[in-house]
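Customer escalation, tier 2.

The customer says the design service returned an amino acid string that "doesn't look like it belongs to this structure." They asked us to rerun it and document both sides in this ticket. The original structure tokens are below, unchanged.
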């Protein structure tokens, strides 16, 4: 009995040590493992998720690098944005993004929403956002219907749950294929985040 207990204890120690080494190695490479790994929307693709907030200056400074990366990302990569919802103000901006997504106008409004929120323009209330969207070619009635739709409400409820599963406690943060998380603090800088993302995509592409 004693031998079995000692053997079990040794197995646990060896496993813990191996996990520690893997965590340290991942940290040196600029990322950490997501535990447990999360399923992706399309197993045939390498999924890359960005968690962001329009009011975050770090997200804003990261956006140009991300925009350039999107122009040359591998064809087998599926990119998804998810606005983080850590408080009521973040929630209002997240709702604006999900409305744009539902209307199919993210490409038209995303950069200007970033600019506007960073410049402290009044983009908080439904009326203020309705004005912003109409200035970008969206009919006011379409905006208001979508803004108050079940689809957008569902996205708003799902966003915090998804962020929690990935252990998101700050932005910008990138998740690669449901398995790895990187951020400026992990990679060393926002510029190095792109390198880490590319390396993780290669790592995951090799198994597809």
């Amino acid at each position: 009995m004693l031998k079995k207990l000692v053997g079990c204890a040794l197995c646990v120690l060896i496993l813990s040590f191996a996990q520690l080494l893997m965590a340290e190695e991942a940290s040196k490479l600029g990322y950490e493992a997501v535990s447990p790994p999360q399923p992706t929307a399309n197993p045939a693709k390498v999924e890359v998720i960005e968690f962001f907030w329009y009011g975050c200056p770090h997200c804003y400074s990261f956006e140009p690098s991300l925009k350039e990366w999107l122009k040359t990302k591998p064809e087998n990569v599926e990119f998804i944005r998810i606005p983080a919802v850590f408080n009521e103000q973040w929630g209002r901006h997240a709702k604006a993004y999900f409305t744009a997504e539902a209307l199919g106008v993210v490409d038209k409004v995303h950069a200007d929403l970033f600019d506007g929120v960073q410049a402290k323009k009044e983009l908080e209330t439904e009326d203020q956002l309705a004005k912003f969207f109409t200035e970008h070619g969206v009919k006011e009635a379409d905006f208001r219907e979508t803004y108050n739709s079940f689809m957008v409400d569902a996205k708003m409820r799902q966003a915090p749950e998804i962020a929690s599963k990935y252990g998101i406690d700050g932005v910008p943060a990138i998740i690669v294929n449901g398995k790895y998380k990187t951020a400026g603090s992990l990679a060393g800088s926002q510029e190095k985040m792109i390198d880490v993302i590319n390396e993780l995509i290669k790592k995951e592409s090799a198994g597809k």
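Tier 2 assessment: The sequence is consistent with the input. Residues 5-26 have pLDDT under 50 and may be disordered. The first helix runs from residue 2 to 28. Sent an explanation to the customer and offered a walkthrough call.
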